[in-house]
Specification:
The complex is a heterodimer. Chain A is α/β, with parallel strands linked by helices. In chain A, strand 3 and strand 4 form a beta hairpin. Chain B has a 5-stranded mixed beta sheet, covered by helices on one side. In chain B, strand 3 and strand 4 form a beta hairpin. Chain B is globular and about 55 Å long. Classes of the chains: A alpha/beta, B alpha+beta. At the A-B interface, helix 18, helix 19 and helix 20 of A face helix 2 of B.
Amino acid sequence: MNLDELELIARSVRQENAAYDYELNVCMDLACASQGAEMLREALIATGDTSGKKVLVRRTGCMGPCSSGPMVRVDPDDTLYGHVHADHAEKILSSLGNEPVAVLQCDLNEHFDKQVRVVLENAGHIDPEKIDDYIARDGYKALLTALTEMTPNGVVHRITESGLRGRGGGGYPTGLKWGTVAKAGGDVKYIVCNGDEGDPGAFMDRSVMEGDPHRIIEGMAIAGYAVGASKGFMYVRAEYPVAVARLTTALREARRRGLLGSNLCGTTFNFDVEIRLGAGAFVCGEETALIASIEGKRGTPKPRPPYPAVSGLWGKPTLINNVETFANIAPIVRNGGKWFANMGSERSKGTKVFALTGKIANTGLVEVPMGIKLREIIEVIGGGVPNGHTFKAVQTGGPSGGCIPAEMLDLGVSYDALLKVGSIMGSGGMIVMDDTSCMVNVARFFVEFCMTESCGKCIPCRAGTAQMYKLLTRICDGSGTMDDLSLLEELCVTVKETSLCGLGMTAPNPVLSTLKYFRNEYVDHIVHKRCTAGVCNIKAPAEVLA
Amino acid sequence: MSENVEVKTLVIDGQEASARRGQTILEVARENNINIPTLCHLEGLSDVGACRLCLVEIAGSNKLLPACVATVSEGMEVSTNTERLAKHRRTILELLFAERNHICSVCVANGHCELQSLGQSQGLTHVRLPYRNPELTVDASHERFTLDHNRCILCTRCVRVCAEIEGAHVWDVMGRGINSMVITDLNDDWGNSSCTRCGKCVQVCPTGALFDKSQIGSEHPKHPDFLPYLNLMREAQ
């Protein structure tokens, strides 16, 4: 396979598509599929066959606004329909060429206008199981360009120039990481893609793996060329069976097309990817635990250094990046580092995909340029808090992150800004809470998550989170004292400063940030035996009632 | 000693020290008679950095490093005994005492227990955290030894000595987080496991979790210090 052959495939797909008058793109991602998108697709195909119009019905990955699903987009008109069901198939087909079906149309212009799509550029446009669809949208062009026109150093340089930072949460500069692995000695090196997305409320990586799997494979292959690795591992949690199936298909197709394997594009570069399934431990998202898990060992973290870049899988230099990081690579190589660096804020470049969930009108996936205000994401793109309730806080970064109160909504989203207010960027979960959420209970929920997901290796995380949970439970049920609160705060500091890995170090964040911004709620529970949100079931003791 | 050994100089608690490249902070500190408390570390076994008691402060960094695995670097300034560290160490010991059922007065290891000694040396006068009081079992199926989960602190010395020194890998850890447990084989009874009855795990266990049945009720000192000698003799072969 070379660039000319790639162009031929792309051209023939475009020609094929041009033969149709209309394209009906049906979102088949989990949220839409669970509401009958498969039946809808079959109905559209059946009705399309009898309608006499030349219609292509295509299954696609996640289009974004999951709360409006199942979704259908009609091209070339670019008409977006939401809450579509199989019975609507005839209506939609007969409307082609006439006025669109008004009742089904979604008004999501504001939702989409503020977004910039890099990682999700193909979402809703390609069939994830067809490699040719991906190639028709410039897929694998970056890999072949890198192989034939760039040196490995040149690729690393381009990534460094882009200012891309790790999208898994830590925000480590990707170019620097690639450079370190490239410089590490030895013939055998590995590329690992971290697809162990486990934060409650986060589904960005799943959508990318399910909707555009080739983009990740291409990113990994480019990384392999840049750092001198010929073997990659895709670590996906077993709870994502559709992602695993799509990736398996994608790998097979890529091998068939000669885009993975030996002597790619006639060069001496070999690269292939193997899928490894995680057993669902949150801690396996931590890179040293992930490595242990791939090696077939118990998934527990190890003290760093040595960093995986020096000694990783089976002691070899290993490059570990998150799914979204790899998904950014192909466009950066294609369009140049400067193009990417032009987007975003000063120290956080590019775009970020967020999974909007909780008490918000438009739940789903959004991709926004870094530096955008939280207010814009929540009020404009997310459509605000529904049902007349008022916004209370937004939680970013999952169990490692913190709650950001309403006063701080004008904060621009970047790694450093979020860290400063006691939260983290994290992998991109964004949970919106309104006046019906009790912040003590929220903190307890996340601490419980960390407690059950702790691997048990180091004491502060293993026993510390369990003690924090116990103290928070006391406060929630009204039996807590102010002494418990100060003990809790002290414990948070020890767990944060002494834990072995990131899970423990960040586990107190939800408690610390809610204590910082919503301390009055804690005091309310302890002193006044009252939960203003009405979530906690506090049994009032006799002396309070009297 | 090979000729091209790189020597590093550093300062530990205001005391100048020299070290070979690759040595851990703990090794160098002990060579210089500076005591850093440890629990999961045992000379002769690999280090896992799990107990977090040996954390030390490095000048210029806010991050605490585990002395058992962190290696020295030139000009490093290490503090092993600050107020911040002392506080963390006491809290960690409190967490350990409150985690399972450590009742010294009825323990076979009373007076010879590393956890107990650490509590004393670190000035732990009482435990403020609520005791968890979990219901745990005792495995007395082995003809010579007993495992009492109530006293286990999951330091994994038994796991490491069995895998690394005895070469049997009978011990391992099962479960996650607060529910982690040491097990023999695939959670079989110790008495029915592939145990070679060497007793090394009992000797290295810092508490009364593993003990010799023949010594119940008597003074029960353990001898975890045989490992460096054993390793030396093996290397010499």
